[in-house]
Amino acid sequence: MSFDTNLDQDTATAIDIDRSKGDFTFPEKHKYDAGRGLTKATVDYISDVKKDPDWVREFRHRGLEVFESKPMPTNWATKDLENIDFDIIRYYLSDGERPKRSWDEVPDEVKETFERLGIPEQERAFLAGVEAQYDSEAAYSNMKEDLEKQGVIFVNSTEGLKEYEEIFRPWFGKVIPTGDNKFSALNSAVFSGGSFIYVPKGVKLAQPLQAYFRINSENFGQFERTLIIADEGAEVTYMEGCTAPKFETSTLHSAVVELVALEGAKIQYITVQNWSSNVYNLVTKRGMAHKNAEVRWIDCNIGSRLTMKYPGVVMKGEGARGEVISIALANDGQHQDTGAKMIHAADNTSSNVVSKSISVGEGRSTYRGQVHIPKHLKGCKNNTECDALLINSNSRTDTYPAITVRGNQHVTQHEASVSQVSEEMLFYMMQRGIGEGEAMSLAVNGFINDLVREFPMEYSVELKRLIELEMEGSVG
Description:
Elements: E1 2-3, E2 32-33, H1 40-50, H2 54-69, H3 78-81, E3 93-94, H4 108-116, H5 119-126, E4 129-134, E5 137-143, H6 145-149, E6 153-156, H7 157-163, H8 165-168, H9 182-190, E7 195-199, E8 209-214, E9 221-222, E10 225-230, E11 235-243, E12 251-253, E13 256-261, E14 266-275, E15 279-282, E16 284-289, E17 294-303, E18 306-309, E19 312-315, E20 321-330, E21 335-344, E22 350-359, E23 364-373, E24 381-390, E25 396-405, E26 411-420, H10 423-430, H11 436-452, H12 457-467
Parallel strand pairs: 4-8, 7-10, 8-11, 9-12, 10-13, 11-14, 12-15, 13-16, 14-17, 15-18, 16-19, 17-20, 18-21, 19-21, 20-22, 21-23, 22-24, 23-25, 24-26
Antiparallel strand pairs: 1-25, 2-3, 4-5, 6-7
Helix pairs in contact: 1-2, 2-9, 10-11
């Protein structure tokens, strides 16, 4: 379905998000640079620098083979994807240092980057642990001592695969196999950075863990790989933030995130991204929920030239639950192609998808979802809600729900709506002394307010800052 509005464009012309907090860069100081383009030599260079064990090197080369064999996706976002030139991308940049455990030891320019973004401040205030990635590698990684005593592991993926192989390796690449799609294969070939988290049986983290991913270099590709395992009865909340400065050339971000919630465990994964408009954000995220386990994605997508992201949950055990709550804002020249995948693979499983999108100027937002309930199961439930807000006559939204339910022992429901900020609504508020820009901001914030409450307090404040529409002086 495609929808347009006839709202006069003068009521909402130059809506923009304040990205000044992240739009800065420092001169590059890299000890290791894999150069431009992707070949077997590139993969070997990365493996050599990272001192990969043989099984990881083999995994990378297999990823390269699959990437080269798979064509670019042609069923959606084709025009945007054709603009990616894999031959000019730099696939690995690093200063060669291990992540610092003390903030004082972090290099000055990296420290200043994250201090300007508020990372250490947030850690002191409310986080149980923080990892900060700068280009290809983590620059800082720290966790509170009491969690270490409980057996919680929170390190970058390189440390995870080397120092905790007996926990890491059995699940690595199992939730999202290399051949899942072209970009998961690309990540498999050149992955670097990302988080490895293991929460032991029965341990319930009261405070969230956070990772922050920062792209500093031009023509760069960031390919972090995150694996989170919550053992039986464990609970963890993980939050990630992402920024990049605005370059004239394209930047690629292609992450893979795998979540494993064992029996009775709960994982909540929260993302607030604020990419600049030159970033192609093409990521694969999926969780596996075992018996009576829960995987919950809370996702906010702002910025980027093109985002293709569809967090998913495979409900593998009876009584498992999956949920995706997402907010997307597409501005001029941006396409937010987002959604969710819910795969029911056991009896009495339940899933919930709530998606809200905002299209501004000539921005385009797309909801693309998949729900699959096979015939042999019983007692499965799904709820899918897709709501879109269009700001003016050039805005566009599309909804492509694919809900496949076989058998007659299940309950599913789907609701979709498209609305616009009407002239009457703006007129009503302006008659009460509210400026046009503030009125538009109130309308948009009201549209997403129920979902913003789902974010932890600390992130809801950040989210409202990002989604604040700077209308004053730019309307009419």
